[in-house]
Amino acid sequence: MVEVNGNFYNLKKNYLFVEIEKKVNEYVSKNPNADIIRLGIGDVTLPLCPVIIEAMHDAVDEMAKKETFKGYGPHEGYKFLREAIADYYKKYNVSISSDEIFVSDGAKSDVSGILDIFSSNGNVLIPDPAYPVYVDAAVMSGRNIVYINADESNNFLPLPDYNIEAGIIHLCSPNNPTGAVYSREQLKQWVDYAKKNKAVILFDAAYESFIEDENLPHSIFEIEGAKECAIEFCSFSKNAGFTGVRCGYAVVPKELEINGQSIRDLWARRQSTKFNGASYITQRAAFVALSNEGQEQINKSIEYYKENTKILSKVFSELGIWSIGGKNSPYLWIKCPNNMTSWEFFDYLLEKLNIVGTPGSGFGKNGEGFLRLSAFGSHESTAKAVERLKTIKF
Ligand code: PLP
Questions:
Q1: How many A from CA of 178 to the centre of ligand 1?
Q2: Ligand 1 center to residue 330 CA distance, Å?
Q3: Residue with CA nearest ligand 1 atom 11
Q4: Beta bridge partners of 144
Q5: I need a surface site. Which of 40, 75, 196, 286 has the fewest CB within 10 A?
Q6: Which residues have CB under 8 Å from 144's CB, separation 6+?
Q7: 124 by DSSP, 3-state: which?
């Protein structure tokens, strides 16, 4: 007799964004003329930039000819892309070899799939609030989660607590949902802790391209000793607009070993079984995204999105409503006014201003009383949202 994986019963009933969508749909069905502005979900809205579109067209043409057609590619990604990613790291004085890079269909698959190669014994340390995938993936695989508080007392950047024992540590910087970014010194504390505890840091750098402060690290591997205790995940989703194209990568350093076992080799083994490679067309697109021309065009999109966080953050400051983030990330983390709960403020914005945000409580208990707004709307809709926000009166 077959039984279902009982761990699934321990998952929260609905994925956060499904719950939001349900609420918005209910509102729209009662108010069909409502002009809804969506500043909730972290999906991009700008189209792919010209150099990427051209590369994809060229790749399709290659697929159309017998001589240049490509079937299955290497499961770890084409060498041309892995070498370009290794080159990209040089910008941050990080030396990574192309065979430590594993191209994938995005960071979500990697940050959850990586758990396959670790025993389910031991604690998974997750900052609260966090990107929900870390929690759900740990729950699905029956792991014990230990939360560490990310709150106003530590500027939403928790540091290691040596009283807590952890095997796996999820860190995300720039952070989703708070927009907070770890400094080098803070990351060094995590690296020291991980080494002392023989733990592994799963470092999610999906938003690294949004960092504008030159003193902030883009990669955990900028920190001395990190290659012995960390794996990094990155994505082309938010910088190059690949949320629909799908491409990301994991960096698994050769130095990372557990009891003499190379973690890089285990991940290579796992990927060769469970993943058949990102498409050639996608990888060609990712390759040009890393070229000088690609970076120039991508940076324009990032700047475009950042304009949105600038005007949003200005209006909240004028309203006397506390917020952080936005500067080095595409997210603004807002303290709900008048002691409202996250869902109360969500309902207020939806019903009074027709603006959709993301309730902070959906990211963990410390998110209660906060709301996340994203930079990924258009200038027009964000400016319209700002005009509506100016009318807030409590
Ligand atoms: N990591 C974080 C922190 C995210 O916020 C997201 C998407 O929102 C992802 C990973 C997923 O990225 P991808 O589109 O590459 O799967």
A1: 14
A2: 12
A3: 108
A4: 123
A5: 196
A6: 122, 123, 124
A7: strand
Quick one: which of 282, 92, 309 has its CA closest to 184?
92
DSSP letter for 352, please.
I
Q: Determine the Cα angle at 210 with ends 365 and 358, to 5°.
A: 30
Q: How far is it, in rounded angstroms, from Cα 387 to Cα 294?
A: 34
How many Cβ atoms are within 10 Å of 35's Cβ, its own excluded? Answer: 9
Are 330 and 207 contacting, i.e. CB atoms less than 8 angstroms apart? yes
Take residue 111 and report the two structure tokens written for it. Answer: 């940050």
* Residue 158, ligand 1, Cβ within 6 A: no
Blockwise average pLDDT, block size 10, the chain, 394 residues: 95 83 95 94 92 98 98 97 98 97 98 97 97 96 98 97 96 97 98 97 98 97 98 97 98 97 98 97 98 98 95 94 93 96 97 96 97 95 96 81
Residue 108 CB neighbour total at 10 angstroms: 19
The size of the chain, in residues, is 394
Dist CA 387 CA 323 (whole Å): 18
